[in-house]
């Protein structure tokens, strides 16, 4: 549980850092605003088209009597929109990071610089960085889509589908959201996707403590925009923690310690 609280603490620290550095906060808003406009249009279209899509996908229910027809299709409309929101939470970050790659990399470097210690810098050309980010984002989104399909199917289970499954959905969203955000700092440290996922699995509760509250906040579109600079800053602080060498005990060994032969 301490790791869970520590992860949430890095989220708060990142927001404080961003709001305390006004120029960098404004610098990090632009990519999120561009992405928000794109996603607002997509979700509006989904909201208007979900009814028609569900009716098209369930022709077998056309002859059902009331209230079963309405119950089935209304439930499916809600699930389709929830599934769309689930994907939007994950892809919003991926697309925003891709659009704002130079912005967020500079912001992440500044966080490292203000916190002291080593400040890793990418020596790759911009096109190469964009290619790596896009490729890794697609790989992550494939994983998310597989989880999403599974959770969507489990959503039909009575009671469990309306209680446990949404919670699991936000946990999945938060975990991969953390991966996308920490990738900015970890890529500068030379870590490939496989190594990043291994690193995050080793501190899963800390990663969830950072990502799940952020995923919940990102459900509100305008909140996502204003939290994005702080999310990148917090993810950089989290990455510093995850990659820090293990602490050693500064105390000298006791001369009375028994030695084994």
Could you give the topology of this structure?
Layout (H helix, E strand, L loop, with lengths): L1 H19 L1 H36 L10 H32 L1 H15 L10 H29 L5 H29 L4 H10 L1 H15 L2 H23 L18
Can you describe what's shown?
It is a single chain. Helices cover 80% and strands 0% of the residues. With 261 residues, it is mainly alpha-helical. The longest helix is centred in the first third of the chain and has 36 residues. It is elongated.
Give Rg in angstroms.
22 Å
Mean pLDDT: 82
Beta-strand content: under 5%
Q: Termini separation (Å)?
A: 39 Å
SSE succession: HHHHHHHHH
Total number of beta strands: 0
Specify the helix fraction band.
Answer: over 70%
What form results from the Cα inertia axes?
elongated
Please work out how many helical segments DSSP would assign. Answer: 9
Low-confidence stretches: 253-261
Biggest sheet layout: none
Q: Helices and strands: which structural class? A: mainly alpha
Short note summarizing the structure:
This protein is an all-alpha fold and 261 residues long. The chain is 80% helix and 0% strand.
Q: Which short descriptors sum up this protein?
A:
single chain, 261 residues, mainly alpha, disordered C terminus
């Amino acid at each position: 549980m301490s790791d869970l609280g520590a992860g949430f603490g890095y989220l708060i620290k990142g927001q404080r850092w961003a709001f305390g550095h006004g120029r960098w906060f404004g610098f990090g808003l632009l990519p999120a605003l561009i992405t928000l406009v794109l996603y607002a249009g997509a979700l509006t279209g989904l909201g208007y088209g979900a009814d028609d899509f569900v009716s098209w996908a369930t022709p077998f229910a056309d002859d059902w009597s009331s209230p079963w027809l309405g119950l089935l299709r209304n439930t499916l409309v809600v699930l389709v929109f929830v599934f769309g929101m689930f994907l939007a939470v994950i892809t919003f970050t991926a697309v925003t990071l891709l659009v704002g790659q130079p912005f967020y990399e500079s912001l992440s470097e500044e966080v490292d610089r203000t916190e002291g210690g080593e400040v890793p810098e990418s020596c790759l050309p911009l096109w190469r960085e964009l290619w790596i980010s896009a490729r890794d984002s697609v790989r992550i989104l494939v994983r998310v889509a597989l989880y999403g399909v599974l959770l969507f199917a489990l959503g039909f289970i009575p009671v469990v589908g309306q209680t446990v499954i949404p919670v699991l959905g936000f946990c999945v969203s938060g975990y991969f959201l953390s991966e996308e955000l920490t990738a900015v700092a970890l890529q500068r440290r030379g870590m490939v996707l496989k190594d990043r996922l291994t690193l995050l699995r080793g501190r899963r509760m800390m990663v969830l403590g950072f990502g799940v509250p952020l995923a919940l906040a990102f459900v509100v579109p305008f909140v996502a925009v204003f939290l994005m600079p702080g999310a990148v800053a917090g993810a950089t602080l989290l990455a510093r923690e995850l990659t820090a060498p293990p602490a050693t005990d500064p105390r000298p060994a006791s001369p009375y310690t028994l030695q084994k032969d």
